[in-house]
Write a structure and sequence with these properties.
The complex is a heteropentamer of chains A (477), B (100), C (518), D (622) and E (169). Chain C has 518 residues and is mostly helical. Helices cover 73% and strands 4% of the residues of chain C. Chain E contains 6 helices and no strands. Classes of the chains: A mainly alpha (477), B mainly alpha (100), C mainly alpha (518), D mainly alpha (622), E mainly alpha (169).
């Protein structure tokens, strides 16, 4: 029963309970300062994760009965860092948001923590049931957070749509797990892998796998299961959307990576082809539909669908280099998307809304905000010397190696299409005269965070070797 | 003689009815009901498989699925109440502010 | 043999450092921004000139190499190196950027941002000409394309016809960036396919060349990859059907940007076709280049004819650039040493000439606020210096002997005569067409009676204002009157480059029968 | 014996002195009139002195021509283009003309252009012109000739358009340059063909005169250069001559070139540039000898130009344009002479023509300088008010008509003798043209110089700096015939044909007499003749409608049809259809896809289930 | 023999109840028919030997969840569901069609895959509380703990959303 492997999750549970208590004790005035506590909590978790390093490679086995359900391998350890980083930035985003959330801001941070817990569990999951539980933990907190602005009809609608779609997808997920359990007799990944090692899967298992992939496809926003994304991104409060677009999507991809590359590895011919078709459809859908958008959050929603396409393209290569490319792409996507959403959060109050017209002349009113959004969007578009370019390049390279040139062609065309609508935003910021004249004041912490994000994008874009080396050592199942 | 297939066919049918219910009924609460129905169908499948495999872990999974379904219902109903109060309607198709 | 001081690294990073430095300068201090920009580009110019003189003609090959392994697992290295051809192009870019920075003194508002984007553009182009690594080649290639968008979008000007706006600068900026990125991405897929199918596991051009000469790709694979690269890079070196972005981009861009844009950005494409498409896929090149030759003749004739019908000065020069680039592509497609020397020299000479032409039009536009030919006239009286340079630019463009263009076009025509006689004849006809619209432009702008509205037009009085024009004219004349040293520099690397190309029949035979490794 | 450095130095200074002046003036004396004038004149007198020095030595026999000094301008393994100076009797004579007559004209123009705003720009261009003319003359290979050819075209463009405020001058300059450029298109192709066929081995291809001349016979035998290609190359090279020496189809630019200052017309459009074409034919006569067909066409083109342009001069009211048409006609004579095989006769007439035509132009210039008018009908009685100018004009006119004992007579007579021997029809055309020449010369003399001066005309004699060159040139026009130029060029003049001389004298007498009757005695009214054969008069006044045809072609066919069609194609097909069409298509796709997001939850669940079904179907397929 | 009769009885009843849930107009009727379905399923669980689960099914599902539903329906005093506007009929029609298609494919897969694997007689000790508890607290300890946080999150979420503070009237 080696507890240290679960240390981070335990610390987080303690954190959740601690938050619950402090929230009950603190008066309304001090509630505004609760984000400092949450931030400190995440930093402590970072320490615990760092402290956990000697236990990498072991798994949590209560009373040594049967297969491990929760494993702390390098893969999980690396991605937990990324989850913590995402949560750190999202918490920084919520500071601006506290006025809107009003009285129950305490609960918001609690839900953030439970979402983080779900993500951390998903990173090192090694059993279908635990996967289901972790997924539901993450999704439930996101349902509630999506509908958090109780007074705003759009937020409620977003929460509702996310809930209904989420429950249908978890219904399918459970049904899939039952089919897999039925054919194999166990739900943990090790036995599943041995069962399918021969390469032939019984029909029921194939159906089960597909339903599980559908459930995760919903999480990652792959095409047939993506319809909720634009509406929820537009309606939900922006920090939640940031968490959704980066955290929940990364969790989905991490689980997919683990499932496809360790459990269903022998059957890669099948899911390789399916994922290729899905990725082509996802890329085209996301990038084409984003062109006529007028709301920036909705535009970023469609763009995140587009990026899901690229991630699936990386996965469809069914090669180790492909997995590393997906890892790198996630890293780049994380920095770029967080930068973009951070600006959207800070700007939406002052600029008064999320319509693209409100961003006219932002570069005159606040050069730093405009520069961050400029760098973030161009990194998403895949322009060197930024991170997105290297991510896209590696994914395309992996797909060329896998021999699917038609997919590479579609991926290439999508770079040009995506550049169009990203430049539409840049056009508004730089080319249009400013709407309001008074400059936007940005408080020092946000300024530091923005500069750090820009630095991150540039660093990941220019210095590629350390990250690639870390990823290649991490992604080994 | 009742075989495993009978149970699985039954669970599949229940699942489909739940799914049909979600897509046809307009009232959000009824949609949540149908979701419950889908989860129950899955539970039936789990128990049937546990029985045929002679391995009790299937039933433990059902235990967890029930708790998740219950949690689902609480959040669902909370949002339904919020919707009824704020948007003064419970019909899913009248709620389409966010589109295109 | 990397020398002790990484000359090329300093040359490449000087403008980049300038851009970074500019970020720190407060926006109000426009003069500081200008000084930093001029300093950065003059450092690069000094180094470029030094390289051209110090380049060891005897040994040839890549010199001043700087190699830093960047991503070892993929075989990507920050590998800079310059051979005869790229040294000349680096000098061209150094000259254009130095004069461009001087010309952009006319930019009055948001000067700091302007210079940041401008120096990024310059760094990108230096990167392309000096990098010997596929990854960094594409890295700098894209880095050169993207700053064009804000540069044209913010400081550009709408293209008017009779006062009515024909297309806005935003449309032009957007179209240009998307068009070039689409081309670049197409080329990227080609490069990746090449990287993968070569199996050499390295992005380094030199290593790839050795590898491919040892076990070349089979001719069919090369025949499939080459068009991707040719069309991808052909979009920016405006190959005929894909050329329409360039004139519109020129017309809307501010003069200093269109100087770099037409002067140098177009050469990226043709240089890339030489270095990558032909360098790595010789058999593919031999098969597809006749098509390129046919298309670029359209470039010459069609571009010239359309230029004749244009009324906006910058559009005329824009289409004339695409027509001149037709010569460069013809030189490349002819696969003879003479033609390739001519092509590279023409890239150099045409770059300077277009930069001069756009600088002049920029000055005319700043003084008269119109570029519409029917509204202009008689400026020779009030702008004598600019008018003289205008006539010089027109004459250089219509390849009057004494200017670099004549020598280059002569070499291209002589070189391409054996393989493409018809194209060579049409190329000579192109010279006549060029002189027609160039003289029409000069006549329309500088000669004739001076309309009342332009009497206040100011000529470039101070030496500092005249410096860019004088530099460009001087170099053009120098190359035109005594081309031997420059031609020898180009020839040192062009001749061995061409010798690697097998005769067309050998290739055709190779594709039909099963290609045995040579 | 004098050889080695001094000769090479003399040769190089002969070529590069004017270039140094052309470079010096803008750098040093841009706004200082005296300095720029002296630099320009110095830049021409020094080469004149070198030429005389070389001539002296050749005559004394201490220098053996042909002398070749060269430096490799472009050195590549498979292309070596030298840039050198080739001095032989032909090029020495021509350089003497260029520098001699040139210096006279330079000195004259210091007076003529005294208070012109673009003074130093004018002299820069003149020096540059001198340099390029000398490049043509002293070139030792076809490419250097071509370089000079183009530069001369540019200088004439710049000088014609010197007063660029005047729209007609600007258009005339542009027209001259473009017509020359069209002709150079053919010329360049000719050179290219010559270069391509100069040797079967690519590395040994050359454009050098001597090498080509020696190789020609062997090339023809070996079949590498077939006869057809030789004819074609000859014709293409003759194309260049058409443009530069303003022969029939491409002569339209010369009359308009009169918009430029008169010394320019004297130097460029009389003495030197237009003669370059003839000089090139004489220099490379070996190329055309092998192709009689080419020579035939050359002769006929020359004859036609001579006759038709002489006819035009008859009705022309403008003094300078009369002289321009006369130049056209005399050039026709020279080309005809070369066409008939007598390139020495052509050169002889070229030399004499340079003297008296420069004289006539300068005299006309001083008339314009004095009276500010060019139309001869507004002039009259200048004999009294401008004695020196009218005297020198008279001598020039006499030489032009071919009055016996003057230089014109001897050289024109040579050509008529040639025509008489080879081609009877051309001989008759030549004689009739001689008559016409006499007619318009006398007409110009009588109307402009004799008779009463109109009341408001107050002409004053030009300053001495303009008169001295006039006197010098008139001396040369008189003495020109006796300098033994044909002997110097290697073919001493043949026996004096009395019958040819007689017929030409008769033609001159009738022409002059007729003109005297009409314009001096006014016995027959010029208008009456004009009315009687009205169509001929209209034809001549409209210059055979050449200009109208060309302007129609440029405006309608070239600008509107071809260029317009291309521009429309570009704007609507390539930009409109291909580029914007693509963009519009993606926009359309975007909007269509966006429609899928209906905003209704149950629609999304439906999508979800369809996705599942699709997934199951795909699983079946893979 | 009795087992097959019981199976068909309860299976049929469950299907009918499920259909009633979907088709009945009154929301209360749907909830009650779902209750009936729950009971049939519980009895099927007993047939399958999963006694604890059957008990849980009734206690948890029938007792807690459906009562919650009834409570909410009463709270919002829902009346008969008005007929949907005609326009959305196509959507609901398509919905049923797609659901049927999905159902048929699932049934086909399930029927073909598991042909004939008979259900062995019920060994006594599988469905008992001890067996289940022993498994729950050893192998499935971690999910167990996590579900507690899941429920905590759900509760807090439900409270914050549905709480009626005067500020958000």
């Amino acid at each position: 029963m080696n507890w240290p492997t679960v240390a981070v999750e335990l610390a987080l549970c303690a954190g959740v309970l601690g938050l619950l208590l402090t929230d009950a004790l603190l008066g309304p005035a001090k509630k505004q300062a609760i984000w400092k506590l949450a931030l400190a909590g995440v930093l402590v978790l970072g320490g615990v994760l760092w402290w956990q390093r000697p236990w990498i490679g072991q798994s949590f086995q209560p009373m040594a009965a049967g297969q491990a359900m929760f494993v702390l391998d390098p893969f999980a350890w690396t991605f937990k860092w990324l989850f913590l980083l995402t949560m750190l930035v999202v918490i920084l985003m919520t500071r601006v948001f506290t006025r809107q959330a009003g009285a129950n801001i305490g609960e918001f941070y609690l839900l953030l923590y439970s979402a983080l817990l779900g993500m951390l569990v998903l990173a090192s999951v090694h059993d279908l049931l635990l996967l289901f539980i972790g997924l539901e933990l993450l999704t439930f907190s996101l349902y509630v957070m999506a509908a958090y602005l109780k007074t705003d009809a759009r937020s409620i609608e977003a929460g509702l749509k996310y809930l209904i779609l989420g429950s249908v997808s978890s219904g399918f997920l459970v049904y899939g797990i039952s089919l897999l359990y039925g054919t194999v007799g166990a739900t943990d990944f090790a036995t599943l892998r041995d069962a399918f090692a021969t390469g032939q899967m019984p029909l029921l298992a194939k159906a089960g796998m597909l339903l599980v992939l559908a459930g995760l496809g919903f999480k990652v926003a792959a095409v047939p299961f993506h319809l909720w994304v634009p509406d929820v991104y537009e309606g939900a409060p922006t920090p939640v959307v940031a968490l959704l677009s980066v955290g929940s999507k990364m969790a989905g991809i991490v689980v997919l990576l683990r499932l496809l590359y360790s459990v269903f590895w022998p059957v890669q011919a099948m899911w390789g082809g399916i994922l290729a078709v899905l990725s082509a459809a996802t890329m085209l859908y996301g990038n084409l539909a984003a062109i006529p958008q007028t709301n920036i959050k909705r535009l970023l929603g469609y763009s995140s669908i587009g990026h899901a396409g690229y991630l699936l393209m990386g996965l469809s290569t069914a090669s180790w280099f492909g997995a590393q490319a997906v890892g790198y792409y996630l890293l780049a996507y994380l920095f770029s998307n967080l930068a973009a959403f951070f600006v959207v959060v800070t700007a939406s109050q002052a600029v008064g809304g999320d319509r693209l017209e409100d961003y006219d002349g932002l570069s005159r009113r606040s050069p730093l905000l405009a520069a961050t959004l400029f760098v973030g969007l161009l990194s998403l578009a895949g322009v060197p010397p930024l991170a997105g370019f290297v991510g896209k390049l590696l994914v395309l390279l992996a797909t060329v190696e896998s021999g699917r040139l038609w997919l590479v062609a579609i991926g290439a065309v999508n770079v040009a299409i995506s550049l169009y609508y990203y430049l539409q935003v840049v056009r508004r910021m730089y080319l249009r005269p400013a709407v309001g004249t008074q400059p936007l004041v940005v408080d020092p912490l946000t300024r530091a965070a923005l500069i750090a994000l820009i630095g991150g994008i540039l660093l990941v874009g220019i210095v590629q070797e350390p990250f690639l080396r870390a990823l290649s050592s991490a992604i080994r199942f | 003689m009742i075989t495993l297939t009978h149970y699985l066919v039954l669970s599949a049918l229940l699942f489909t009815i739940g799914l049909a219910g979600i897509m046809t009924r307009r009232n959000v609460i009824l949609i949540l009901l149908c979701v419950e129905l889908m989860f129950n169908a899955a539970n039936l499948a789990f128990v049937a498989f546990a029985k045929s495999l002679g391995d009790p872990s299937g039933q433990v999974i059902v235990f967890f699925v029930i708790t998740v379904a219950a949690a689902e219902v609480t959040v669902g109903l909370a949002i339904a109440i919020l919707m009824a109060r704020r948007l003064s309607t419970l019909n899913a198709d009248e709620v389409s502010l966010l589109k295109w | 043999m990397p020398t002790v001081v990484p000359v090329l690294a300093v040359l490449l990073l000087a403008p980049a450092l300038g851009a970074v430095l500019l970020c720190a300068v407060p926006a109000s201090r426009a003069d500081w921004a200008r000084r930093i920009a001029v300093a950065a580009t003059s450092v690069s110019l000094a180094l470029a000139v030094w390289i051209v003189f110090d380049y060891d003609r005897a040994t040839g090959g890549y010199q001043y190499e700087v190699l830093i392994p960047w991503v070892r697992p993929l075989g990507i290295g920050f590998h800079l190196g310059v051979d005869g051809m790229s040294a000349v192009l680096v000098l061209l870019h150094a000259l254009c950027s130095f004069t461009g920075v001087l010309i952009s003194y006319a930019i009055k508002e948001r000067v700091k941002e302007y210079y940041i984007f401008y120096l990024l553009l310059i760094t990108g182009v230096f990167g392309v000409f000096t990098s010997l690594d596929l990854f960094f080649f594409y890295f700098f290639y894209e880095m050169a394309v993207i700053p064009m968008y804000p540069l044209i979008g913010i400081w550009g000007s709408d293209v008017k016809e009779h006062g009515v706006v024909r297309f806005s600068k935003e449309y032009a900026a957007m179209k240009l960036t998307i068009y070039l990125t689409a081309g670049a991405v197409l080329a990227l897929t080609g490069l990746l396919w090449l990287y993968v199918s070569s199996g050499a596991g390295t992005f380094d051009v030199v290593a790839l060349q050795h590898h491919l000469s040892a076990f070349p790709l089979d001719a069919r694979r090369q025949a499939m990859i080459f068009p991707l690269l040719a069309v991808g890079f052909g979009v920016i070196a405006p190959l005929w059907p894909f050329h329409s972005w360039s004139p519109i981009g020129h017309a809307a861009a501010p003069s200093a940007v269109s100087m770099l844009h037409a002067g140098v950005l177009m050469k990226l494409g043709s240089y890339a076709i030489i270095r990558l498409a032909m360098g790595l896929l010789p058999d593919g090149a031999v098969m597809w280049l006749p098509w390129v030759a046919a298309l670029c003749t359209m470039n010459i004739i069609y571009g010239g004819l359309v230029a004749m019908a244009q009324k906006d000065l910058k559009l005329i020069i824009g289409y004339s650039s695409s027509s001149h680039m037709g010569y460069v592509l013809l030189g490349i497609a002819a696969l003879t040493p003479l033609a390739l020397d001519g092509a590279v020299l023409l890239m150099f000479a045409h770059g300077l000439m277009t930069a001069l032409a756009f600088a002049l039009v920029g000055h005319v536009y700043d003084e008269t606020h119109t570029r519409y030919l029917p509204e202009l006239g008689g400026l020779g009286k009030s702008l004598p210096f600019i008018a003289t340079c205008g006539v010089i630019a027109a004459m250089a463009s219509s390849s009057l002997p004494g200017f670099g263009n004549f020598v280059a076009e002569l070499l291209v025509i002589l070189g391409s005569w054996d393989r493409y006689p018809l194209q060579a004849i049409l190329a000579v006809l192109g010279i006549v067409i060029t002189s027609v619209y160039m003289l029409r432009m000069v006549r329309g702008t500088f000669f004739g009676t001076l309309p009342q509205t332009f009497t206040h037009a100011q000529d470039a009085q101070t030496f500092f204002a005249r410096l860019p024009y004088l530099v460009l004219v001087a170099v053009l004349l120098l190359v035109g009157c005594w081309p031997r040293p420059l031609i020898r520099l180009i020839d040192v690397s062009a001749r061995p480059f061409i010798s690697t190309f097998a005769h067309p029949e050998a290739i055709r035979m190779a594709t039909t029968t099963s290609s045995q490794p040579r | 014996m004098v050889t080695g450095f001094p000769v090479a130095l003399a040769a190089w200074t002969l070529l590069l002195a004017p270039l140094a002046a052309a470079a010096g003036i803008p750098l040093l004396g841009l706004h200082r009139k005296r300095l720029s004038a002296s630099l320009a004149i110095g830049g021409l007198l020094v080469p004149f002195a070198c030429a005389c020095w070389l001539l002296l030595h050749t005559l004394q026999g201490s220098l053996h021509l042909p002398l070749e000094v060269k430096v490799s301008w472009l050195l590549l393994p498979d292309l070596a283009i030298p840039f050198g100076v080739l001095i032989d009797p032909l090029s020495l004579l021509m350089s003497l003309i260029v520098t001699g007559v040139g210096s006279a004209i330079f000195i004259y123009s210091t007076g003529y252009m005294a208070h012109d705003s673009g003074y130093s720009r004018y002299f820069t261009m003149l020096s540059l012109f001198a340099f390029s003319m000398l490049t043509i003359v002293l070139a030792n290979n076809w490419l250097e000739l071509f370089i000079g050819w183009e530069l001369v075209g540019f200088c004439s463009y710049a000088l014609i358009g010197h007063w660029f405020e005047k729209p007609q001058a600007a258009d005339a300059g542009k027209k001259a340059f473009l017509v020359n450029r069209v002709a150079d298109f053919g010329f360049m192709l000719g050179i290219l063909a010559l270069w391509a066929h100069s040797s079967p081995l690519a590395a040994e291809r050359t454009l050098n005169y001597q090498l080509l001349q020696t190789r020609l016979p062997s090339l023809l035998q070996s079949g590498w250069l077939s006869h057809e290609t030789l004819v074609l190359t000859g014709l293409l090279i003759f194309c260049g001559v058409l443009g530069k020496s303003a022969q029939m189809p491409l002569h339209v630019w010369l009359p308009d070139a009169m918009e430029g200052p008169t010394p320019v017309s004297a130097l460029i459009h009389a003495a030197t540039m237009v003669a370059a074409g003839v000089y090139m034919l004489c220099r490379n006569f070996w190329l055309f000898q092998g192709a009689p067909a080419v020579l035939e066409t050359i002769a006929w083109v020359g004859g036609a130009t001579a006759f038709f342009s002489a006819a035009l001069a008859v009705v022309e009211p403008d003094l300078k344009r009369i002289l321009a048409y006369s130049t056209l006609s005399q050039l026709g004579y020279m080309v005809m002479a070369v066409g008939l095989g007598g390139h020495v006769a052509g050169m002889y007439h070229l030399t004499t023509h340079a003297f008296f035509k420069a004289l006539l132009f300068l005299a006309a210039g001083s008339v314009i300088h004095g009276t500010r008018r060019q139309n001869i009908r507004e002039l009259g009685g200048l004999r009294r008010s401008m004695p020196w100018t009218s005297a020198t004009f008279f001598i020039g006119a006499l030489a032009l008509c071919g009055f016996p004992a003057l230089s014109g007579f001897f050289s024109k007579d040579e050509i008529l003798v040639l025509a008489h021997e080879h081609n009877a029809l051309l001989y008759w055309i030549g004689s009739v043209t001689a008559g016409l020449t006499a007619f318009y010369a006398t007409r110009a003399w009588c109307v402009a110089f004799l008779g009463q001066a109109p009341e408001h005309l107050h002409a004053h004699e030009s300053p001495p700096v303009m008169l001295i060159p006039l006197v010098l040139l008139s001396v040369l026009s008189i003495v020109g015939g006796y300098l033994g130029i044909p002997a110097f060029l290697g073919e001493p003049a043949g026996a004096f044909h009395w019958d040819v001389a007689a017929t030409s004298l008769a033609a001159i007498a009738t022409g002059a007499g007729l003109a005297w009757l009409i314009y001096r005695r006014k016995a027959i009214a010029a208008e009456a003749i004009a009315r009687r054969c009205a169509w001929l008069h209209r034809l001549l006044v409209n210059r055979y409608f050449f200009d109208d045809v060309y302007t129609w072609y440029v405006e309608q066919v070239q600008q509107r049809l071809i260029a317009g069609a291309c521009a429309l194609f570009e704007r609507f097909i390539i930009i409109g259809l291909a580029v914007n069409g693509l963009a519009w298509l993606t926009q359309l796709a975007g909007r269509a896809i966006r429609r899928v997001q209906t905003g209704r939850v149950q629609g999304y669940v439906l999508g979800f289930c369809c996705g599942i079904i699709a997934l199951l179907y795909l699983a079946g397929r893979f | 023999m009795a087992e097959t009769i019981f199976f068909y009885l309860f299976a049929g009843l469950a299907l009918i109840a499920a259909l009633l849930v979907v088709t009945s107009r009154q929301p209360v009727h749907s909830v009650l028919s779902l209750l009936v379905a729950m009971f049939c399923l519980a009895s099927l669980f007993v047939l399958l030997g999963a006694y604890v689960i059957a008990a849980l099914q009734i206690l948890l599902y029938a007792g807690a969840v459906l009562v919650l539903f009834l409570f909410v329906i009463m709270l919002l005093n829902l009346d008969r569901e008005t007929l949907a506007r005609t326009r959305s009929f196509t959507l609901r029609g398509a919905g049923t069609l797609v659901a049927l298609a999905l159902g048929m494919s699932l049934v086909r897969i399930v029927a073909r895959a598991m042909a004939g694997r008979s259900v062995p007689p019920v060994p006594e000790q599988t469905g008992t509380v001890e067996r289940l508890a022993q498994l729950l607290f050893t192998k499935y300890l971690l999910p167990f703990e996590l579900t507690s946080f899941l429920i905590l999150a759900a509760i807090i979420g439900a409270i914050t959303l549905a709480r009626l503070k005067d500020s958000d009237r």
